[in-house]
Amino acid sequence: MSSTPASERLHSRDSLSKEALAAIKKVFKREQGGPSKCRICGNQLKVDKFSNLKRHMQNLHQREYAEILVASGSNIEEMKIASFAPVTFDQNFLAECCVKMVTVGGLPFGVLERPGIADLLGFRIQRQTVLHSISLTVEAFREKIIDELKGQIICVKLDTVTRAGQSVVTVFSQLLRAGKFEMRTLAAYDLDFATPAEEMKAKVIETLGDFGVDASQIYAITTDNGINYPIATQLVYNAKRDALLSVDNGISFDDEDVGFSGETDQLEAGDYLEGNTKEEDALSVITHAIDEGVICAANAFHCCAHDAIRSLKLKKQLDEIRIVVNYLRTEELRKLFVRNHLSIPKLEPEIRWNSVFSMLSQLIDQKLFINELMDENDEPMLTAEHWTFIEKFVEAFDPFHSVTHTLQEEIMTMGDFYLLWLECLLRIEELANNYIAKALIAALNSKQEHLFESRFFLAALYFDPRINYGGSELLSEEHKCIAIDQILKLWEKIRHTESIEVSAHAENGSSNSCSTNFRLVEAMLRKKHSLKDLGRSAVEKKLKELALQPRISAESNVLVHWEQRRNSEPELYKLAQIVLSVPCTQNTAERAFSALGFVLSNRRLKLSKMTLSDMVFVKLNHDLFQQVEIDYMKSRSNYTP
Known about the structure:
Helices cover 56% and strands 8% of the residues. It folds into 4 domains: 85 residues, no CATH class; 189 residues, Nucleotidyltransferase, domain 5; 147 residues, no CATH class; 110 residues, no CATH class. It is an alpha/beta fold.
């Protein structure tokens, strides 16, 4: 038996007899000055090499290839290779795989043209072919999402993530269906913090329109913390409200009918990002928007942390510690850390508290080793006062770190967030002798007042029997009244949306067994039945009864609770699905950052804006591959040998 690897023999002329070589060549007709054409299937091979002819036979014409080997008396090793089950490709499946590889998998386009992949397939897949398939995927995904959002009242969230100097703004929709969050990426486009608010507004409105989302379908919009985002969001509200008011639909609107849940806080001069306006009119718009909305839950924790650090003026201590850490990272000492199987100390920027927490936590873990190094050197060192500060900082911020990690990883309701908030507050209150903890407690209590100024936050808590129950002291009577008023406004929005659906159904009604057209009768019956169950007074009564319900455990799942009441309380259930769906975590931002990291790798820094947007869109909605069938062959494509 030959010692030559089978993988080498597979592409070698020497492993075939002269008779086999000649027989394989006869299968192909070579056009003068052109490529070889298979006489069996009619496909043309772009590269006229014998290895390609042979591979074409092995992959597509196994029976004929085996017959050639038998007739030519080829050696037993080549017969075994031919007997392997060949890899065959359905063109549509191959196109989908290529799209997944470059979007979901993050592979560069050039991979598909490299010799290894080209040899495996027997032909090369051009970059433009894959780009065309990505466009078809975007089109199919968009149609699916439009169908999912049709007639639904949704929440919208805007996030921005940056990699390699490129910022991508993502527009997400979020809703609750059957007790589960459904999040979709509606768009991802290349904008940045300095993009004018008017341009952002136009993009958001255009995106919502592309997905058939009407103004009456938006319950709340949560934005990123860039200065121009709340301005743009307010402009979107104004535009949408004006559009609604221009139509006599029987609904009155004020500035709070479409929700604003901005991830912004009162900003200081030093908080402005380069390129953003600092004019007074911009500040007034931001303040107005903040007063009307709810501060994003996840961002509220970060604001509390930075408020506490500023109030204690900890910059001096942190700067001194960074000097020592910088010294520990010198080449000589780095080798000592590596030699002792320890991580090299991190030198984190002072911009984010969680980066500082990570740096100080690592110092505590390596305290004994660091002190030994300090005893042997006369360079800057950490004193007992420094270590006391480090330990108190880590002790106080540890509950914060746990909570923010949860907010980044999970999708949750406002009620879940508030229970996390209380748990964090109670844990910090146990640190009676920690002065940093006291500053955090003060910041949490101050920020909680801002949270309770939001109608959307209060409405969500009102629908949570872990928080709103008979005898509860977590919501005041004033808070309950505000929540009920907000929920009743939402009920009017639901009635308006359903009346539109009734009209649409009446216009597009299907034929019946009788020759008479009952279009008007059907519309009247559907409308009466719909509005009969949606009476404002009846719903208001049911809402007030929620404040008298028994408490359920804080460990309970509020979404499961409302699923169990779906049939017994259909009106309240419908409201709960919307009120509880307001985004309050950084999960979308984490997903967008991860997607951008995959798509915008170091070898893809020159992607066009359109390609980048399409690839992030597909990456973030990749689960739709399992739900849609895409005909990649409906227009000219090249996924054949």
